[in-house]
Amino acid sequence: MNSILQVNDATKKFSGLMANEGITFHVDRGEIVGVVGPNGAGKTTLFNSLSGVHQLTRGSIIFDGTDITKLNSHKICKLGIGRTFQIPQAIVTLTVEENVLIGALCHTNNMKEARQHADETIEVCGLAALAKKPASILNVAQKKRLEIARAYATDPKLLLLDETMAGLTATERVESVKLIEKINAKGVSILMIEHNMDVVMRVSNRVIVLDAGKVLAIGTPEEVTSNEAVINAYLGGGKKDA
Ligand SMILES: Nc1ncnc2c1ncn2[C@@H]1O[C@H](COP(=O)(O)OP(=O)(O)O)[C@@H](O)[C@H]1O
Ligand SMILES: [Mg+2]
User: Fold this and answer.
1) Using a 6 Å CB cutoff, which residues line ligand 1?
2) Is the pTM here over 0.90, yes or no?
3) Residue 203 lies in a domain
């Protein structure tokens, strides 16, 4: 089986609202898959279901051969799905190193091993110079980078990135793309929500377009950008809320 993730008919209802409805897609091993769609399309809701923050109303999620549909977030993290949050979750009173260590402790209970893994992650993520600094002093780009480091430190097979480039300058985005590609080159599959279309189309093998909780299109960047429904509903409709 080549897919690291298979999502079938993922549906999440919040009282009267269908935040996700009938979402079916897969992520192949080693793939980078982009998730785009206007605000409120249901992108973060999908990530919350995949990472066990809440459970699906209907549908199933198979990760690396295991049905994780009903598992909690801790178990899912242990199985190998790491995620970042749209609003960075770093504990600002802790240092960069301590924050990354929290992620590493999902990967191992051995403190020495966790520290070593955290150090390696910090190095890969280009945060070594800031390791001993409190997270509170980081700028937006550094906070986003720490968020990736925290998630990557859990040693994921699949990393879910929720708008890790929002608020970054063009130069910072280039650096962030380099980091994502570096992590991917280490064998980590990536599912990334991203508003910046240049970035999504450049780094993604395939792109999922969500609109009003449903899949509007899935395909290569070329396929989705030439898809008429996508052009009408999203790309051409002035809704590109970058
Ligand atoms: N925990 C929740 N309770 C109720 N409604 C929610 C909850 N989370 C998200 N929603 C609603 O689901 C819809 C999709 O939200 P979200 O997944 O955050 O969209 P996106 O990430 O694409 O901007 C929105 O209408 C949002 O208000
Ligand atoms: Mg969101």
Assistant:
1) 14, 17, 19, 37, 39-45
2) yes
3) yes
